[in-house]
């Protein structure tokens, strides 16, 4: 599927049978968002913006929405068991496939609880994003879908849409950095399935 915005690669509504219609947008970083797209967000009441990126990412890659006073811009980094590597350009980067699955579970910490509560209690529609919109944003999306009692297959399908949306970017990234383990950057069913099998929502809600 294509992205909701021309300026991003992986923006889409979080849809489901029980999720309020067009209440949430999940996305990769909207650092090149256009004026028309910003105006569209405002017109459609997407005025609560949640930045899930690390401190380093937030400081080194600005987002125009942060300086637009029509929006409530909240920087709430996703952490792993309360920790985040603020010096890393991509925030949290697992080294192995097993680490990816483990990292998803460890994201369900006290900071995630705050993020989820902020999204659920927002007075407006919400746009939330990380860098690529697949891992940190994927975990947040899965938790929201669990809370809304969406089916397991729906959650997995939503997660896997990121593979189609940003596959070209991953391929380019792999060519530029041939030493990178591509198994850890591509969304895989096993990652989200492991998360769904092991996450404890009682720690979050």
TrEMBL record:
UniProt-listed SUPFAM superfamilies: (Phosphotyrosine protein) phosphatases II
Gene3D superfamilies: Protein tyrosine phosphatase superfamily
InterPro entries: Prot-tyrosine_phosphatase-like, Tyr/Ser_Pase_IphP-type
GO MF annotations, alphabetized: phosphoprotein phosphatase activity
Protein name: Protein-tyrosine-phosphatase
